[in-house]
Structure formats: structure tokens, C-alpha cells
Amino acid sequence: MGGWAIAVHGGAGVDPNLPQERQEEAKKLLARCLDLGISALRSNLPAIDVVELVVRELETDPLFNSGRGSALTENGTVEMEASIMDGPKRRCGAVSGLTTVKNPISLARLVMEKSPHSYLAFSGAEEFARHQGVETVDNGYFITEENLGMLKLAREANSILFDYRIPAVGLESCSVGPPDDNLLAMNGLPISLYAPETVGCVVVDSQGRCAAATSTGGLMNKMAGRIGDSPLIGAGTYACDLCGVSCTGEGEAIIRGTLARDVAAVMEYKGLSLQEAVDFVVNERLDEGRAGLIAVSRNGEVACRFNTNAMFRGFATEDGFTEVGIWD
Length: 328
What we know:
Structural class: alpha+beta
Distance between the termini: 29 Å
Radius of gyration: 18 Å
Strand order of the largest sheet: 4-3-2-8-7-1-13-14
Number of strands: 14
């Protein structure tokens, strides 16, 4: 074993014109989350505890699209989803359609540990949360002025579609130009109109135990009831005895490619290293989709790969390597 390692992300796909101040805020949040995770790992907390701890921190800050600050549905409400997975026995828990649970990732862990199931959604998940006594808040707690403005832009662009595409007609009213070959698009949507993205954390502890956690509010202006990749084990989140993986980006493409599980699969069946596996999966399994992922291995390695213009990300390892970045 090569010691502990941790990686965090705040989403793939970034507005090319993102103000420098906002970039610095994102880097500070990622660095704070890394420090939180490093401290926990140095205190010998198991990997599953660390990923929950870090993702709770990301959910509490409205900067990224999870928990407070989640993207809004077409109805102007929040429907959050999350999943968590413990590598040693591949235990997992997932939730979708949450409207009042302050920290979805913690409810996902309770599903894993306190229910006979792996996945609960909507009213069933909310009822389970009440029975477990988790902290709940009014739906308005999760709604920021920035996301209300983003929803208004998406509505004006006539983007209320399942796959969240914006036609060329109508973009003028959104203060952006029509899409061109040089403008990044995710699922057909110009990045300058794309909401902040999913958050996630992957960890391997000093005992070689891997874990992964992912949380999101989903796509801005999504149809009510839409479920993305983040709560789907094997798509947005996966952990086993080899590695832990968290994905972000175009959810429908990540689902089709079972991206997170494929990283572990090619390591196991093709004998690839962690970085080789991550590169292979992003290059070969996205079918022209746009996404990114972070991963750790039981050997204390960290890896990252994305085919978007950028990805909010941070890494740290026991041997002293630390990095926080946004652009390619």
C-alpha cells in the first residue's frame, strides 16, 4: 500500500469567462475540503467517513451544485441526489428527489447502513429521513439568487427539454451568442449557460480501503423527476477493493458508459494502472459525451481525466503531493 490519498471535484465544464474572483473562491473551497480530509485521514478515520465528511462540506457551501445552491428544476424547485460507496465490501447507498434534507450524502449513507435497500427516492427517501431524524430545512434554503437567474436564462432560451438542449433560436435573449465550434457545449448546451456542476470525493485510507461519494442538484431547468448519474452506482459513483471513482458532467452519457464501474473493470480485466484506466474510460466510453472523473487506487495513487474545457478539482497524497486546479 502506498499510503492515503484524497481527491475532490466541483464539476466538469467551466464558463470560459468565469471571473477571476469566482475562480479563487472555488480554489479556496476545494483547498478547505482537502485540508478537512487530510486532517481526518491523519486521525485514522476510515475512507467512508472521510468522503462523507468532505461532501457534507461541499453540500453546505452554495458555490457548487449540491445541497445548498443546487440547480433548479423547471418548476423552480430543488430535487437533490447523492450516492456513497464503501469499497471493502462494495456496500452502497443512494438517494434521489430530495427536497428538504440538508445533507443528501449523509442520508445516502444511512440508506446503506440503516435500511435493507441500496436506493431510496422522492417521498420514500424523505420519509426515511424523518424516521432517521436527519436535519431537514425548507426547500427555499437550497435556492440561491444566482441559480434563479440561471433558470430565467434557460427558460428564455426555450431549453425545457429532457436532455437540456438549447436551440440556436432564442439564445440572443440570454446575452450569449449562438453556439459555434469553439464554444464548449455539454449535452448541446453552451457552457456559458450551464449551471455549476456536481461535487464528489474519493479517498483511500492508510489501510488501503477505498470509498467514493457524489452529490448534486442535477441539471438546471431539468424536468421534475429526472434522475442523473450521480446516485447511480457504477455510473457516477463506484468503489471496490481496487479503486474509488466519482464522475461529473453530462449525466446521460455517464450513465450510458457506466463510467465509474468501467475504471475498476479495466484495471481488473485489462491490468491497467489507475491513470491508464481513467484515460481509457474517458477516451473510449463517453460516445461523444462530455464528462470528467477523479479516482484513487488502493496503492495510494490519485488520477483525474476530463474532456471538457476545465474541471474544478483538488488532490492530496500522504507523500506530500497537493494540487488544486480548474483549467486543463
